[in-house]
Design goal:
Length: 221
């Protein structure tokens, strides 16, 4: 059977299952934790829509943001459910969000009963893992300037609207660096004529995509 069709069917079964059952509901406001770092997760949460940020705070106080997400729907806690480990991340609502809390036993029974749901969930977890590892590897193995440029180029060519933070420290957290280090790279790129600040100074805009891409190619060639 076609993989895409299997994934769609598994997804539709999940949505129908959630709609039919009378699960406990939880409302969280902007800035509230959906899941907290080091928290033991005893339920699987479903949000539709889902607006959230993922952040890890190291013991030395440094913070790494894995991005802000605005999705039609999303599961929270499925990684911890399978691993049996505490959550490695804070998952923070960036808008008022209604959560549906699914008991882990009920979730287990669904997976055992509906193989297409298990197939869909495996695909979902694998995709998230690869995406997260790609971010972690690039942050670790390439210079800060490379990562900031790549992020700008990706945002520029993306068909979806990018999320820009109001404060520089929040942008710095996306690269696991200090606000000072982030500001230094931005100043370099402006001085080199590669980017410019918008009129209201709230966003950064590439001026020369080809030169920015050449910089990336130099490190990846």
């Amino acid at each position: 059977m076609d993989k895409t069709r299997l994934l769609q069917q598994g997804y539709e079964i999940v949505r129908a299952f959630i709609a039919q059952e009378n699960f406990r509901r939880v409302s969280v406001n902007k800035g509230d934790y959906i899941v907290k770092q080091h928290q033991e997760v005893n339920e699987i949460y479903w949000a539709s829509p889902a607006h959230f940020a993922i952040v890890h705070t190291a013991k030395n106080g440094k913070r790494l943001s894995l991005g802000d997400y605005s999705l039609a729907d999303n599961l929270f806690g499925e990684f911890e459910f399978f691993s049996g480990e505490l959550s490695p991340f804070d998952m923070i609502a960036t808008a008022k969000t209604d959560l549906i809390a699914i008991p882990t036993q009920t979730f287990t029974e669904l997976l055992l009963r509906e193989t297409k749901v298990a197939f869909w969930l495996n695909h979902r977890i694998s995709s998230i893992y690869q995406h997260t590892m790609n971010i972690a590897l690039e942050r670790s193995l390439y210079p800060l300037k490379f990562n900031i440029i790549k992020d700008m180029v990706t945002r520029h060519v993306s068909p979806t609207q990018s999320i820009h933070h109001s404060y520089m420290y929040q942008e710095a957290e996306r690269f696991g660096c200090t606000e000072r280090a982030y500001a230094r790279i931005i100043r370099e790129l402006i001085d080199e004529g590669l980017i410019i600040k918008s009129h209201d100074k709230s966003t950064l805009r590439p001026l020369d995509i080809e030169r920015l891409q050449d910089y990336l190619d130099k490190y990846q060639g």
